[in-house]
């Protein structure tokens, strides 16, 4: 049974405490937290970051399937072999998907362990996107060199007899068309890799700040 003095104190606090102010039971009555100060936009922002990263996974992995299905060419295959051998279109994209999923879950759970997990996965995705960016830039340079070889082959065929030229020109045209298609695929993959790099870098800073704020609040309540 509370004493009359405690009841009077509680009623006085209830009467003078503004609506929307939360008084921590572990803190002194003078230390209050406004409900508006809580991170209401956290789930939405984390969800947007997660969706962007999952979208990058879908696009990059789909383009990776296209690269695998391209017919073998003695001139063009070496240009894309490096990026396929590293597995970036699939392993890197899978890393982006995991990071995006963890980000969405962390936004809903909003506690320190999930924030730290999202920070770690975002940092890993940043590294993966950076490596993919370098690989894609190298593949584009190699592909450009291979396309020039296709052009030089066409010039060489024009000096041959008509019969030989007629049957070989189709190989040169296929080489040029495949080169254009591969360049388009790599450019789109490069664009989404840059998008993923920016999203992962922003997510790393975002979750670092969030984990720091959560840690400070937890220590202040102890």
TrEMBL record:
Main location as per UniProt: membrane
UniProt KW keywords: Membrane, Transmembrane, Transmembrane helix
GO biological process: cell surface receptor signaling pathway
GO cellular component labels: plasma membrane; trans-Golgi network
Stored InterPro entries: CD20-like (IPR007237), MS4A (IPR030417)
Signal peptide as annotated in the record: none
Membrane topology of the entry: Multi-pass membrane protein
Subcellular location as annotated: Membrane
TM helices/strands, residue ranges: 48-68, 88-107, 119-143, 186-208
Pfam families for this protein: CD20 (PF04103)
Family, per entry: Belongs to the MS4A family.
Name of the protein described by the UniProt record: Membrane spanning 4-domains A7
